[in-house]
Design goal:
Number of domains of chain A: 1
Mean pLDDT of chain A: 93
Mean pLDDT of chain B: 95
Low-confidence stretches of chain A: none
Number of strands of chain A: 0
CATH architecture of chain B: 3-Layer(aba) Sandwich
Structural class of chain A: mainly alpha
Order of helices and strands of chain A: HHHHHHHHH
Radius of gyration of chain B: 13 Å
Structural class of chain B: alpha/beta
Largest interface: A-B, 20 and 16 residues
CATH topology of chain B: Rossmann fold
CATH architecture of chain A: Alpha Horseshoe
Largest sheet of chain B: 4 strands, parallel
CATH superfamily of chain A: DhaL domain
CATH class of chain A: Mainly Alpha
Shape of chain A: globular
Oligomer: heterodimer
Order of helices and strands of chain B: EHEHEHEHH
CATH superfamily of chain B: Phosphotransferase system, mannose-type IIA component
Number of helices of chain B: 5
CATH topology of chain A: Serine Threonine Protein Phosphatase 5, Tetratricopeptide repeat
Strand content of chain B: 15-25%
Helix content of chain A: 55-70%
Helix content of chain B: 40-55%
């Protein structure tokens, strides 16, 4: 992608797209959260991103990293619940990885830093029925697609979205071990995790915006073969 | 004097716990920080940060928290002030810990360490037998 101003414009577009999506999914997220949580995830996320959009509205001339950081601080202040420090704190902390601009390596570093901070703060692992269940497969798939398979970022991101979707489905049959749902014990089994779901929605919007600005193919299959077969085939 | 911040998902609970602890702690500086962004149930990192700044007079602050996001938001608040204020989270039940901390803070020789240690003793309290 081109210069900082253009990158900032794309970041602002993404913030807008995520805000609209979360507003549209507000009731659905809250329904998911009322089954196993405190029924506020939809409203909290919609309010948080609306604040992030407002607070970044006049940042067209800022560096993309500063815009992302402002999104993080807005979420910390406005989301409430555990999602504020988890989403906001992790975005704020990872934003420094974008200081040199939004190239491929920087987006991988951002994704990894975001995941690391989130796991550090929330102390959740894969299988605990949290946003980590969507995020770990997404980040790992994205990193592998870029660094090992040398795929274009757009293809890598579309595979990451597919991986996140599988992660969200994976949360349904699990018993929650972290977060408010863990207080329900076995009653949490059979319900989709709201935090994993909102993580997927955000990734889907990032993919949508990226598709308008990047070359490459959308390949929503995290398991499709991605490594060129450079070994000689056996007879 | 070591300051104390009481963090709860409920504004009323944070104020009530601070009230109970103040009765025991005499002069201790106890500041409540409770409730979400719209005054609903929740916790907000910048509110906790403001409470830490209010509670500190240079001797540091011990933060009592209830559960879940209260812990994470208190961590973010402490990171925000870490260059200026020695603030620590007590791994203790919020009400009993606040009471213990208030009593400990009122002692002339109190430090952040002694107040923290006293607050964390509340983890082992039993209510029957």
């Amino acid at each position: 992608m081109a210069d900082a101003t253009e990158q900032t414009a794309v970041v602002l577009e993404a913030v807008g797209a995520i805000t609209e999506r979360l507003e549209a999914e507000k009731e659905h997220l809250t329904d998911l959260d009322s089954a196993i949580g405190d029924a506020d995830h939809g409203a909290n996320m919609a309010r948080g991103f609306a604040a992030a959009r407002d607070q970044t509205a006049d940042m067209e001339d800022a560096d993309p990293a500063d815009v992302v950081k402002t999104v993080g601080t807005a979420l910390i202040s406005e989301v409430g619940g555990a999602s504020g420090p988890l989403y906001g704190g992790s975005i704020m902390s990872a934003s420094s990885e974008l200081a040199g601009g939004l190239d491929e390596a920087a987006t991988v570093a951002f994704a990894e830093a975001y995941l690391e901070k989130l796991q550090d703060r929330g102390d959740a692992r894969v299988g605990d029925k949290t946003m980590v269940d969507a995020l770990v497969p997404a980040v790992h798939t994205y990193k592998k697609s870029i660094e090992e398979d040398d795929l274009p970022p757009l293809t890598a991101l579309s595979k990451a979205v597919d991986a996140a979707e599988r992660g969200v489905e994976f949360t349904v049959p699990l018993r929650a071990k972290k977060g408010r749902a863990s207080y329900l014990g076995w009653r949490s089994v059979g319900h989709q995790d709201p935090g994993a779901t909102s993580t997927l929605y955000i990734l889907e919007e990032l993919l949508d915006v990226a598709a308008d600005h990047l070359e490459g193919e959308i390949d929503r299959d995290a398991t499709s073969p991605t490594i060129p077969d450079d070994e000689p085939e056996e007879e | 004097m070591v300051g104390i911040v009481v963090v709860s998902h409920s504004e009323a609970a944070a104020e009530g716990i601070a009230e109970v602890a103040t009765e025991m702690g005499g002069d201790a500086r106890i500041v409540p920080a409770g409730g979400g962004p719209d005054g609903d149930v929740g916790t907000v990192a910048p509110d906790i940060e403001a409470a830490i700044r209010e509670a500190d007079d240079g001797d540091g602050v011990v933060v009592l928290v209830d559960l879940g996001s209260a812990v994470m938001n208190a961590e973010i608040a402490i990171e925000a002030v870490e260059d200026e204020i020695d603030a620590r989270i007590a791994d203790a039940p919020v009400l009993e810990g606040a009471l213990n901390a208030a009593v400990a803070a009122a002692s002339g020789s109190a430090t952040v360490e002694t107040v923290l240690e006293k607050a964390e003793e509340a983890r082992d309290y039993r209510k029957l037998d």
